[in-house]
């Protein structure tokens, strides 16, 4: 058995006993020892001169860490809404039958563990599983047997016969069974790119001029909120601080979103160039890419791209001969926590803490990473910034709409002939996008992921832009025969699972909303439940501490608005004196079991089982 304490001591030493690298240390201990046992927590706390409770707080926060030994192969089946519609339940049943265990369990020989996981960024090729950090896409029940038998025999992931994907997915440092499904290349993110051109042009200007260029382009953040990028850079540059940082949010955990995966696979240099330009503009010398743990298979490749940029003089000291300008980037790997997509929770994670959101204000531009001024933009925004410097603000502003300039990269999944990634100028209507992706008989579209909104056919004429339908990129298509309320319930399952639990409105409110929505699906709802859903949703939205809780009620609020008739159809009509949501037989079942006889009124059997 692996000595957790000695492994922990060694891993801590590898990172210079720096408590700021606690996330990397925990990832290393989990990988080498198979778990993070109590003795590991003790040793890490001792080596890093931290309180044990601080270490345990981080170690127990993230889904990819465990205090108990897991199997050599941890099979994580994605169970988001899209995967479920594509047959994830059948795949789950096949894994249960083949391994003889339930989800959450490990086989007796210690070879396999089964677990569910939310969206892993593969909605365009679902159902998908993660086996350790290896992705397997379009999993069928037949594939399940082949996977298990291969791993049992070879006891190595290298023995899996996986067809490599397109583009850089077949790169020697990636070798992933992932397809880009890049359907449309636009003029910004996926256009041909020459390393260093944008950066050279930036260095020929003063930093304040770069910020003016970004502001003139009207670039807004591509994460969904749409805050003006130039203003964010300006605030950070003006904020006092000994050090400043540039952070790239590559934690795209929103269900149905996978565009950043494709950008990082095919255009990582453009992302890093945008970060470097941001560093020059705001006066930062350090950058961090927060890469979601589900994309760990890209880590070696991205590190190689960074190394080549250093060798080419695009990172490091005196970049491209600019005396005094230094900037470098490190990659911080996450460990499975949707809430870390929220920028302050992401910063907490980068600092080696549990990914708890921070109270705002102050905002990251004033006090961010290590309480220093920090620019946080997502992957697509950094790409756009580099292109704007390269081609000029008027070029960028000529695309899209007046309030939403440039292009948008969409992740399209669900009931359509061509799911995948599309880079299209802002202003395209929902109906036009549906036509491009080959969607027919569409009854609903979820815009912006689980935290976005669901719209019906009456709104398909609306445009994708910040003043009509804002989205971080996720567009989920649902065709004829799909149930909007069941889909909303699936999203609420996701939010219940992903709530960090810090504040009561989110921790409790999401569960209450899910339970009440379930009454409609079960035919037990009454008219008053509509009012309950609306009022409780508003409380959760207004009282929650961070963006997760503030957007968690959106599946219910948007379906109440767009599909209210579906709710009304589910309301049970009867003439009894009991509320439709009240099951009298179930209510007296326990008492009947204690009494040892059936209820004379509600027909229960001995033991409390309904007749």
Please give a quick description of this structure.
42% of the residues lie in helices and 12% in strands.
Note the main attributes of this structure.
611 residues; Glutaredoxin; 6 domains; six-stranded mixed beta sheet; four-stranded mixed beta sheet; disordered C terminus
Q: In terms of per-residue confidence, which ranges show pLDDT below 50 for 5 or more consecutive residues?
A: 604-611
Q: How many beta strands in the DSSP annotation?
A: 14
Number of helices: 24
> Strand count, sense and closure of the main sheet?
6 strands, mixed
Q: Residue-averaged pLDDT, rounded?
A: 93
Helix fraction, binned, reads 40-55%
Lateral strand order in the biggest sheet: 5-11-10-14-12-13
Task: Identify the overall geometry.
Answer: globular
- Kindly give the count of domains: 6
Content of β-strand: 5-15%
Using the 3D structure, state the CATH architecture of the largest domain.
Answer: 3-Layer(aba) Sandwich
The computed structural class is alpha/beta
What does this entry look like structurally?
- This protein is of the alpha/beta class.
- It has 6 domains: 4-58, no CATH class; 73-162, Glutaredoxin, CATH 3.40.30.10; 183-397, NADH-ubiquinone oxidoreductase 51kDa subunit (Rossmann fold, 3-Layer(aba) Sandwich), CATH 3.40.50.11540; 407-482, Ubiquitin-like (UB roll), CATH 3.10.20; 485-570, de novo design (two linked rop proteins) (Up-down Bundle), CATH 1.20.1440.230; 581-611, no CATH class.
- Helix content is 42%, strand content 12%.
- It has 24 helices and 14 strands.
- Helix 19 packs antiparallel against helix 20.
- The longest helix is centred in the C-terminal third of the chain and has 19 residues, at 504-522.
- Mean pLDDT is 93; it is low at 604-611.
